[in-house]
Structure formats: structure tokens, C-alpha cells
Amino acid sequence: MWARVKSWAEWVVAPLGNGSLRLTSPLVERGSSMTTNVGTVRATTSTDNGLYAAKGLALVRLTIGALFVSTFFENLGKGAYTAAGYAGVINYYIKASHSPAAWKAVLGFMASHAAMIAPGQAVTEISVGILLVIGLFTRPVAFVAFLFLGSLWVTEWGTSWIWELLVPVLASLGLAIGRAGRTWGIDAWLAHRRPFSAWF
């Protein structure tokens, strides 16, 4: 029968040389001890750490998804997806930002075709946001978010704090690498059917 332990802080670890550890406490009756396997402890710790990391990535995924969804509704309310509103925003960055001349030429093309590009950006933002929130096809969607936010980051050079968009840019890349939809997302169900798919 095991004696009652008064304090876990008093346990002493002693290796046995066969891959096991003997845990002994002076606060228990003489001869009382517990043996555990090091490999089992390591495997359990590694699994726990993996679960914590997956939950952390899932939290980042939900945050970036919420960012896209909230930005969509904010822009919609401001009329930023109309041809005039979109062209006005783009022309402001052409004049005020420090982005390269080649990129400003691209922005000029976007401004002149705002009636077509503005709705496309609206669809992109809300689609990326929803797919990230529900965790569906997270890897390619997160990579699209990385490219989209990266383009905005370049567009805003010199007009805002450099880290304002760089943080979500890199977070989106991390989501694509880390398969963030396999925790708290639909990708978890899809992964059971196709665990080696590159899509989730």
C-alpha cells in the first residue's frame, strides 16, 4: 500500500540505467517508490506540447480571419468598394506612400479599373476571412492572405507604422506552414480522410 505523500516537492529522481526513473520521497514509508519509463514521459510531453502549439496556431487563425471579416464590413460601410471610393483610396497611396515606382504603376492600373477590381477585393476579403474562421482549406487560403496583406504592406510604406501590417503578414505565412485548420476547423475532419493532403 502506498503511504500518503505530504509534499510533491520532496520527490527525488534516480535513474535506474534501463531507461526508467525511480521516484522516491523521504516523506513516505521506507521502501515506497514509483517507477516510470523515460520514453513514455518524453512521448507524453511531446504530444502535449504539440497540442498546445496547434491550439495557439488555431487562435492566430481565428484572429486573422476575424481581421479580414471586420475589415470587409468596415470598408463596406465607408463605401470603399465602390468605384469612386476605391479609386480615392488607391490614389491617396500613390501620392503619399514610399512604395516603389513599379508598384505605384500597378496601383494606377487598379485605380483606373476600380469598377472591376473593387468588388473583386471585397469578395477576396470576406472569403478569406470566413474560410480562416471556419478552418477550411486553411493552407492555401492563409497563403492568399499572406500575399494580399503583403501587397497592402508595400502599398502603405511610409504612411503607417511598419509593423502594423507586417505582423499579420507573417502570421498568415505561419498559418499556411503550420496547417492551422487541423485544430478547431473543418480541415480537422478532412485530414482524417486525406491526412497527407497539402490543401489542409
Tell me what you see in this structure.
The chain is mainly alpha-helical. The chain has one domain (54-193). Helices cover 64% and strands 6% of the residues. It is built from seven helices and three strands. The protein has helices spanning 38-78, 83-96, 101-112, 114-134, 138-155, 163-178, 187-193; strands at residues 12-15, 20-24, 34-37. A three-stranded antiparallel sheet has the order 1-2-3. Strand 1 and strand 2 form a beta hairpin. Helix 1 runs antiparallel to helix 4. The longest helix has 41 residues, at 38-78. The chain starts with 11 loop residues before the first strand and ends in a 7-residue tail after the last helix. Residues 1-14, 25-36 and 38-44 have low confidence and may be disordered.
